[in-house]
């Protein structure tokens, strides 16, 4: 079977040329006679892979010197605990709850201190980003937390909240490397790589150096201290080596695409194609406020559950996979991450037009 257009929210499509290159190197990585999977993480070959990956992501995101880049494990969900355990010096944090993932992070943090929900969009099923221009940030908050792109609902912070000088912590899992960012606006940026960057199992944490201290909550395991991994250059224990290797290839692919400015243009073009059609369709409609629309995750509905199910089934038969919305919201969702080609979105829109004609 040839490759399908995979609209999964994650794990998601990777660039085909990255997969092909990895396949070519599968049994003999550049004359080493072994796969990266079989290689010591202390070897020279792996040291180069890790160093290059770090150099390339630094270049792509213009990460300043005073930020560390850590390649960690445990999924995004482990960070929901690691963040408060490492950053809650005053045992106070403010959370902006714009979806299930932000809510989970908010709930987990409550185990470690006083956690304030300073804004939320739960009143309208997380279909918008609340106004964050004048938040009541707690004077003693250790940080302000956001989920920058809400994978399930398809909303994105177009402007970062004014945190009144407190470090901003952002889960960027579903918008990682999709557009340029000003790293200096954050204390900590982190994300799982399984959407835009590589195979599940790697979490990248970009953290300002002054936030990495030994002053963590009592009982914080060694493996859950940022300092452990920062001091060891992400080699405190055996890292997810193969995953990091694929991430490195995706960084090089992004550089070849022209970097984050260019990838943003491509992402905007893809998203516009789909949103413009949703805005003119008589059958399908987008579910979030226009001003807050994500470039990466596009949820939509027909308003009829049976028709939604028929659409998902027939789309799959046409080679357009994983269009079912998240189980908590229903409907459809097209995730159009960096690796989704324009042709994939065009094929989806063409199919939607045909389905609309046949079913209206
Ligand atoms: N945060 C966001 C924005 C996500 O989209 C996801 C997963 O889809 C998660 C967190 C959870 O990631 P993990 O399964 O790696 O814990």
UniProtKB/TrEMBL annotation:
Its cofactor is pyridoxal 5'-phosphate. Pyridoxal 5'-phosphate binds at residues 101, 151, 171, 194, 237-238. One of its GO terms (molecular function) is transaminase activity. It comes from the Bacteria. Its EC number is 2.6.1.52. It is found in: Cytoplasm. The keyword Cell inner membrane does not apply. It catalyses: 4-(phosphooxy)-L-threonine + 2-oxoglutarate = (R)-3-hydroxy-2-oxo-4-phosphooxybutanoate + L-glutamate; O-phospho-L-serine + 2-oxoglutarate = 3-phosphooxypyruvate + L-glutamate. Catalyzes the reversible conversion of 3-phosphohydroxypyruvate to phosphoserine and of 3-hydroxy-2-oxo-4-phosphonooxybutanoate to phosphohydroxythreonine. Pfam families: Aminotran_5. Binds 1 pyridoxal phosphate per subunit. Gene3D superfamilies: Aspartate Aminotransferase, domain 1, Type I PLP-dependent aspartate aminotransferase-like (Major domain). Pathway: Amino-acid biosynthesis; L-serine biosynthesis; L-serine from 3-phospho-D-glycerate: step 2/3. Belongs to the class-V pyridoxal-phosphate-dependent aminotransferase family. SerC subfamily. It comes from Claveliimonas bilis. This is Phosphoserine aminotransferase. Residues 4-348 form the Aminotransferase class V domain. Keywords: Amino-acid biosynthesis, Aminotransferase, Cytoplasm, Pyridoxal phosphate, Serine biosynthesis, Transferase.
């Amino acid at each position: 079977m040839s490759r399908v257009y995979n609209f999964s929210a994650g794990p998601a499509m990777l660039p085909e040329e990255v997969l092909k290159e990895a396949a070519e190197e599968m049994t003999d990585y550049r004359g080493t006679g072994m796969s990266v999977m079989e290689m010591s993480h202390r070897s020279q070959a792996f040291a180069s892979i890790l160093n290059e990956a770090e150099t390339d992501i630094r270049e792509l995101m213009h990460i300043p010197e005073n930020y560390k880049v850590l390649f960690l494990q445990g999924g995004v969900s482990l960070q929901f605990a690691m963040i408060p355990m490492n950053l809650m010096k005053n045992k106070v944090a403010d959370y902006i709850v714009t979806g299930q993932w932000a809510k989970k992070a908010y709930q987990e943090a409550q185990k470690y201190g006083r956690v304030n929900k300073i804004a939320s969009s739960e009143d309208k099923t997380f279909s918008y980003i609340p106004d964050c221009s004048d938040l009541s940030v707690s004077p003693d908050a250790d940080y302000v937390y956001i989920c920058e792109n809400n994978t399930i609902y398809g909303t994105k912070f177009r402007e970062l909240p004014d945190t009144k000088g407190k470090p901003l912590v952002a889960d960027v899992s579903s918008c990682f490397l999709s557009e340029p960012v000003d790293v200096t606006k954050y204390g900590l940026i982190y994300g799982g790589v399984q959407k835009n960057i590589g195979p599940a199992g790697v979490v990248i944490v970009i953290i300002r150096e002054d936030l990495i201290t030994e002053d963590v909550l009592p009982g914080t395991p060694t493996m859950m201290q940022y300092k452990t991994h920062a001091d060891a250059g992400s080699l405190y224990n055996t890292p997810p080596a193969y995953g990091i290797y694929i991430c490195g290839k995706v960084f090089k692919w992004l550089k070849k695409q022209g970097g984050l400015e260019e990838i943003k243009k491509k992402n905007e073009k893809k998203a516009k194609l789909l949103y413009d059609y949703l805005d003119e369709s008589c059958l399908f409609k987008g579910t979030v406020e226009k001003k807050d629309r994500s470039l990466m995750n596009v949820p939509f509905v027909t308003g009829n559950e049976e028709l939604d199910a028929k659409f998902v089934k027939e789309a799959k038969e046409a080679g357009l996979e994983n269009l079912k919305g998240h189980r908590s919201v229903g409907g459809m969702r097209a995730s159009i991450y960096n690796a989704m080609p324009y042709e994939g979105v065009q094929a989806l829109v063409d199919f939607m037009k045909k389905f609309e004609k046949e079913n209206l």
